[in-house]
Design a protein that fits this description.
mainly alpha, 45% helix, elongated
Amino acid sequence: MTLQELQQQALKLSPSDRQQLLHTIQDSLNPPPPPQTLDLRNQPFIGIWRDRAETQDSTTWVSTLRRTHWQTPQSDNIEP
């Protein structure tokens, strides 16, 4: 479809549909700016567990947590 054909088709639209088409075209030509990136180093929740003794060895802590919470009655007698 040529630009002239497109314009002719647009003129056949109702005023409200033409307005909606115009807004759609304008929105596509002027997209919103990308969101700003978040600098995690400056967020208050980063490091809140830094001084907790049980999380100093995170691998052991996660393994213990999983073993404790994922245990089923059948697995109580199984050695890790």
